[in-house]
Amino acid sequence: MRPLDRSDALRLLGSISLGRLVFTQHALPAVRPVNHILDGEDIVIRLSDGAALASLTAPADGPETVVAYEADVIDPDHHLGWSVVVTGYARLVDDPAELERYKRLLRPWVTCSMAAALRIRPELVTGFQLTDTIQCTATALPD
Amino acid sequence: MRPLDRSDALRLLGSISLGRLVFTQHALPAVRPVNHILDGEDIVIRLSDGAALASLTAPADGPETVVAYEADVIDPDHHLGWSVVVTGYARLVDDPAELERYKRLLRPWVTCSMAAALRIRPELVTGFQLTDTIQCTATALPD
């Protein structure tokens, strides 16, 4: 299990289009699969119009919300792959030109209704790559 | 996007071995990919020995922690698949016989070191299945 540096982690995250938005809803942990693109270092996700996602967004001039975002490609059979977790402030995209651009870039695979976009500015980026399965044989479980 | 009932959602979750544990760490949303099995309706996950996962677990005789658990199989190209989110109380498995059993059942694909097991008792189970891509053509985006 090799740790990924920030640039490798963001590059891998940008190589796929599906991730999971993690937030707090009514003081409980909540998670939704969403579609994303990477715009520079920012993660921009498409919001469906559900109350769950809307509830986490603050107006652009209001307080920002801290969210986590996770994406992975892991082959459970061969124990290979990677996972990246980004933690940062999320804010609604409210600039009309930006919103139009993101609507073209973000493919609406879950919902086809009009959607908002949320930008996550990564403060903390962590990730790992599973590169070696042979270690598992060498370090046997105590049982 | 068809909602899944509880039994279908848990059946789908039990059909795969990878999911994402969602919890609160230092008052911030946190997420880790983990390995799971379904034991009855309980989700049992393998914990690596990292501080992140250890910090969310309470002793079995102490207060329980609320977590969310998400698993999905989504084909981003064909916009088909499913996602299930379980919310419930998590508690360390501390019965030695149970722990031995889970260690045999849970394949240590991320770490090969000794690990603990965490049991999540589902209070709330939600899920959806993406069954129809034709709706996306009928309901075009406003842009």
Search tags:
homodimer, alpha+beta, Pnp Oxidase, Chain A, 47% strand, 4 helices, 143 residues, six-stranded antiparallel barrel
In a nutshell, what does this entry contain?
Chain A is an alpha+beta fold and 143 residues long. Helices cover 21% and strands 47% of the residues of chain A.
Could you explain the architecture of this structure?
Two copies of one chain form a homodimer. With 143 residues, chain A is α+β, with helices and mostly antiparallel strands. Chain A has a single domain, classed as Pnp Oxidase, Chain A (Roll). In chain A, 21% of the residues lie in helices and 47% in strands. The first copy, chain A, contains four helices and seven strands. Chain A has a six-stranded antiparallel beta barrel. Chains A and B meet through β2, β3, β5, β6 and α3 of A and β2, β3, β5, β6 and α3 of B.
CATH topology of chain A: Pnp Oxidase, Chain A
Number of domains of chain A: 1
SSE order of chain A, one letter for each helix or strand: EHEEEHEEHEH
The CATH H-level superfamily of chain A is: Electron Transport, Fmn-binding Protein, Chain A
> Which strands sit side by side, in order, in the main sheet of chain A?
2-3-4-7-6-5
Percent of residues in β-strands of chain A? over 45%
- The number of helices of chain A is 4
Mean pLDDT metric of chain A: 80
